[in-house]
Amino acid sequence: MNPGEPLTITSMLHGWKKVVTDPMSWITGATIFVAGVKPVPAPIVTNTEGIVARGISGATFTESIISKTLAASPEDLITLYRGASGTESGSGTLFLTQDAEYAAAYAKQNGTTVSSYQVSRSGFNQLKNEGLINVGDKNGVLVNAEGKTIATGGEISVSNQAVRNTILKSKIND
């Protein structure tokens, strides 16, 4: 349509053939229409790079966050014990206990040694509450060859590799 040209149906529809037959024009028109009706929220972009765990609250954890969460300060320590032979594979579930006697009974029964690890009590509890550390209440039962119970204790299990590796790095004895 040219300036000064009278407005007719033909002049109004001139150029609409391209708009009607071009899907990109539909998307643009729909976007403009929707934007005029209500605001269109900006897309949420979440950078998931480096996330190694997601807690039950939806919180995400990287290895660095897990390491900082479990970093122990002298006033916020929890000691965990593990009976280990040193031949365990590096990819399975890590079993620990807070009960030194239970770990010693396991070590004696299985010909292993007891290792100690210190982590932040508050960090441990945070990861426990997020479901990344599982704590049982007297769920471990050690039985000798004759089937006699020799010890019971609360076992802690850790399946997430980043949490597992961070705890193993906190070893305080050899």
Search tags:
single chain; 174 residues; alpha+beta; three-stranded antiparallel beta sheet; two-stranded antiparallel ribbon; 7 helices; 24% strand
Characterise the protein shown here:
With 174 residues, the chain is an alpha+beta fold. The chain has a domain at 51-169. The protein has seven helices and nine strands; from the N terminus they run H-H-H-E-E-H-E-E-H-E-H-E-E-E-E-H. The chain has helices at 9-13, 16-21, 23-37, 63-70, 100-110, 121-129, 161-169; strands spanning 51-54, 60-62, 77-84, 94-97, 113-120, 134-135, 140-143, 149-153, 155-158. The strands form four sheets. Strands 4-9-6 form a three-stranded antiparallel beta sheet. A two-stranded antiparallel ribbon has the order 1-2. A hairpin with a 5-residue loop joins strand 7 (140-143) and strand 8. The termini are far apart. The model has no long low-confidence stretch (mean pLDDT 76).
Class per helix and strand makeup: alpha+beta
Oligomeric composition of the shown chains: single chain
Average of per-residue pLDDT values: 76
Gyration radius, to the nearest Å?
A: 31 Å
Shape: elongated
Contiguous helical run count: 7
Order of helices and strands: HHHEEHEEHEHEEEEH
Report the strand count. 9
* Overall helicity: 25-40%
Task: Tell me the strand order in the biggest sheet.
Answer: 4-9-6
| Largest β-sheet summary | 3 strands, antiparallel
End-to-end separation in angstroms reads 88 Å
